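Pasting as-is:
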Amino acid sequence: MRLAIGCDHAALPLKQVIYQYLFDQGLNAQDLGTYTEDSCDYPDIAQAVCEKVSTGEVERGILICGTGIGMSIAANKIKGIRAALCHDVYSARATRNHNDSNVLCMGARVIGSGLALCIVDAWLDEAFKGGRHLTRINKLENSD
C-alpha cells in the first residue's frame, strides 16, 4: 500500500514516530512535511497529502496536527477525500468499514504515540464493507 503522511509543527514528533513505524513495517510512505518545528499552516500540508490521495498516486493519507481537527476540516474540503478524525481504535476500524475513509487524522496533543500506532494499524488493516455503506458513500460523492 502506498501512503502519504503529513503534519504541522505541533505534530512533528508524532509524525516521525509513525513514519518510522510505517517504514519498519515495509510500507511505502511519502513524508510530505513539515520537517521542522517552525510554525506552518496545516491547510498547506493537508492539501499536499490529499492531492496525492485524490489523484490515486497513493491509496491513503495520514494527517496529524495538534488536535487533528484542523487537518480533518481542511482535508474534507478536497473532492474525493473522506477524512476521519480518530482518537480510538474502534473509530479507526469503523471509519474504514463504513465510511471507506481514505485519510486518517489524529491529534498529537490528544493521544500518545502508542495509541496512535494502534489506531494506524487498525485503520490500515480494515477494509470497506460496501453494501448499504456504498450507497451512503455514493451520496457523499454526488453531493456537490
